[in-house]
Amino acid sequence: MSVQRRHAMMIYLYLLLNFVLCEEVTPLIGRIITPEGGTEAREYQCVADANSAPTSFVWRYQGQALPDGVRPEGDRLHFLELNSDLNGEYSCEVTNPYGTAVYSIYRHIVDPDDTHNEL
Known about the structure:
Keywords: Signal. 17% of the residues lie in helices and 37% in strands.
């Protein structure tokens, strides 16, 4: 390999690594999961992947404030009660210095003593 070609390849690799390692991005890739050790009905976690760590998490219920029986704690959402009154869409708004992204999950719990509610 010629010296010029080797030099050009080294510059290309430097620029590629610099772009991959240093690019600051909004939290574009994310999801809401059940954290390890949690039960699906009791707790959810908002996970966002971005090069600049999230600075805030805002949880909403169907676009509004959270109902009684639900408590946000940073990237986690805790359900204090297990009943169908808390069914619906929950969203997590994640923000970092470069932007905001929103992820949603629909929660559906069937009350064990409710014989009229079948899936």
